[in-house]
């Protein structure tokens, strides 16, 4: 039992799941949710992250085994594929079951859209030219859910949804970079694979910068010096992180560096929202 539990934790992609859930909780606090509302947002988003992570590892088990991904618990035999896929289904069903009564039907529908979009990336869009769309839709819907979950169901500002979509699209290109060769061996031909490493790096950096600029320039009023400094950080962190990851010569180092760069930019962006108080 303990081996299965550890395998499920590992297969859930715990680092990105924790990061996205934490960012959502911080955003909920920043837009004015009460403690109960923050808990509802965190629990709902965590369910989506578990569902997506488990579905990804379950569906990709054969591909991971084919390229020798011993770090993947399903491919290495640490947990059964059927167990992971069953857990993914239960977490997916739990998402609206938690979100709707804890927030409201509109917010619950928005978060369910984010979940369905993310699952469509796992299959079948991952290997198509439209692979970036689920990231854009899901990350755009996530801040919209947080705002819609407020009492009174306010309309999420367009600049907030747009910034989330840009951040998600940038995350897609950043996360795909280290696995381009392995993906090509197993027939995955998403948009990053078609652009190649150089094109994907440019796309990731440009989209992350655009997301931060949208958050700085989108709200009413002039941008602050702090916001302009954040734009500068967003322009420099991704390339520096990728270079540092490459220098380690360790498998997966560039992937971890790319994801951490994306989440650092996301945390900076959420800090901008919390500090400005101009979301709704």
Description:
By secondary structure, the chain is mainly α. The chain has one domain: Farnesyl Diphosphate Synthase (Orthogonal Bundle). 78% of the residues lie in helices and 0% in strands. The longest helix has 27 residues. The protein is globular, with a radius of gyration of 18 Å.
CATH architecture type: Orthogonal Bundle
- Report the span from N to C terminus: 46 Å
Q: What portion of the residues fall into strands of 2 or more residues?
A: under 5%
What is the CATH C level class, in words? Mainly Alpha
Radius of gyration: 18 Å
Query: Number of folding domains?
Result: 1
Order of helices and strands: HHHHHHHHHHHHH
Nearest-integer average pLDDT = 87
